[in-house]
Amino acid sequence: MNSKKVFALLLALITFSAGLLRFNSEYTYRILDHTTEINRKQRQILKMREAGLLENQQMYIGADMNVIADMQKSNTDSKFGYLMRHPTQNNQVGKFASEFVIHDAKFQVTGTLTPWITMYFHAVYNPEQSFGSGTITDVERNQLSLQRGYVLLGDLSRFPIYGSIGKMAIPFGLTDTVNPFTASTVWHAFGGLAYGGLIGYDKGGLNLSFMAIQGGAQFRAANSGDDIPDDVANFTINGSYEFAITETATLLIGGGYIDGSAYCQPFSVTHFNGSDGFNNPAWDAYAVLNWGRFTLMAEFAETTEVWPGTHNPNPPLDVFKAHKVSSFDIGIKYLVPIDFLAKDLGVSVDFSQFTAGPSGSPWKDQKQFTVGLDMFWNNNAKFFAEYIRIEGYVPLNFISGPDPFDPSKALGTTPSDSNATSDVFIIGIRVAI
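and the corresponding structure tokens:
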């Protein structure tokens, strides 16, 4: 094929695509938002299609980015507990750290193939939360990966049942936050991502979902106890009901169950290891009150069994018995009108806690207190600032020992430290197109 024919073919493809490609910055912002409707994105897509915000037989593409500047201070050498960056001594050394960085950048594609078939995927670049080795400039941490992707079947304007197959957030609990940027410890502990198939129901304020999950250790927060994810061996159910209390107030209440949480591994705990066939289910309950400019959010999640890996059988740590894993979150947000800007300033206060050990153990809990400010300049650009106080340093990897950074490599050591504290100041911008 000569160059003229190639050019003509490319021109024809561009002309054809111009009638199909669309940008919707409001949709991109909402679908890629990591603070709201985290595990209900399929429902979000269908609701936007039902409202006519996504046209049929189109391809919507978009991207978003979180850029931040932060300062972090710890009272303990090289132990920073802030969870929006993996807490490891490979990344932060000493008692003070500061950054000007890309926290994450995402690219999404949404195809509305028919009125009832939608294709969705997004890729993410997130060196601060990557499981790659080394520092945030290491090549292994600077990779682009497909974080979520599925084919979604459903048309809520005609039928209340929908379904999806692929890689998706596990519908367990709420895991949202009132914070402008920082996720709660409930999300960090129980917010799942896995391969599977989902069936949902949405009508009249009632939303129900069931997801069959691939077995083994999944991408995060799910592990059926199998060593290899070669069977559909896990599942979750979730349900919520939203109703009006007054003309200006609504209440959402809900709960969930997962048959295989991540907390099933024996000592010593390392990410994605199997658990010799042991399953540790978990349950969750949550509520969200929206009353005009005011939002109140609360959630609690807990495993039904103790996590075997939280018992270190080696002295002197062998005195601490294995413990259940739980996390709770309570947050308040109020929108303050700023008249001279004709905009609202979001003011939020949030407290969440992750608990994994008995009283006195170095890995007993990690508390997170957050005060946030945020302002939307338009529907696809948000400025935010946060102060975060973290008490306790409890990394899930080697939670009860041994400490991988201890020179002695003794089995009776742990990286966890209940006396470690961190103070974090963040300013940032989130934009989407």
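(Above: one complete record from the training split.) Helices lie at 3-18, 25-31, 41-50, 185-190.
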